[in-house]
């Protein structure tokens, strides 16, 4: 029996940030991109020197529970445990903390864009986006990015749903690989955005979120060797797609994955 050489896989190194700042910001513009995607332009002096760690940079948004509640932020002491810092604020003043992708960054204008999936009144993020107007106050907590392929990556797959669409858009705009396959599940055709030609759009059409996305990925003709995979979206679907990619031969160390939300729980 011939000997089989096993090569050690070198995992990608995720970006890191130390000394994250917490600061106040305000909404300066509101625009609907699709029937269920709303873009808020947010301004703060700190965005002038903000340096995103990667294309899928995400931020902690500290959201007042309604317009009548003043913005109260945790102490800006560089703490890594922002959840504990927010929990220490008295309940009647405590903002909601949710994580969103930095969609666009314009340092010269000291502003960013953040895209929200709006879906009724199911969670703090969508409630804030639904009522937001010019002048609405919120807090920002700097965070980091997840996208971390190796420099020699040739073939990659990027997979998600509308919750991760802003991050996928940024990845496709800001990075390059010779062979890219991107899959995005959306509610219906009205939710499509003008992205790269590499995107395969999967319309949910009333089925369980993630089901059609899984089917599309499993049926797709993908490269025999996939150097890197990025999978973010509904938690259970992400787990199943990751499992499928591993069965397809993708090393676990080459898969970045995150459950942005979970079916049955309030989103955003």
What's the alpha carbon Rg, rounded to whole Å? 19 Å
Distance between the termini: 55 Å
Give start-end ranges of low-pLDDT stretches: 1-8
Number of E-type strands: 12
Q: Can you give the helix content as a percent range?
A: 10-25%
Write the layout of secondary structure elements.
Elements: E1 22-34, E2 37-43, E3 58-63, H1 82-87, E4 96-101, E5 104-106, E6 111-117, H2 124-131, E7 137-141, E8 155-161, H3 165-174, E9 179-186, E10 199-203, H4 211-219, E11 228-234, H5 235-247, E12 255-261
Parallel strand pairs: 8-9, 8-11, 9-10, 11-12
Antiparallel strand pairs: 1-2, 1-7, 2-6, 3-4, 3-7, 5-6
Give the key terms.
7-stranded antiparallel sheet, 5-stranded parallel sheet, 30% strand, 268 residues, disordered N terminus, alpha/beta
Could you walk me through the main structural features you see in this protein, from its secondary elements to its overall organization?
It comes from Microbacterium maritypicum. This is Siderophore-interacting protein. It is a single chain. With 268 residues, the chain is an alpha/beta fold. The protein has five helices and twelve strands. It has helices at residues 82-87, 124-131, 165-174, 211-219, 235-247; strands at residues 22-34, 37-43, 58-63, 96-101, 104-106, 111-117, 137-141, 155-161, 179-186, 199-203, 228-234, 255-261. The strands form two sheets. Strands 4-3-7-1-2-6-5 form a seven-stranded antiparallel sheet. The protein has a five-stranded parallel sheet with strand order 10-9-8-11-12.
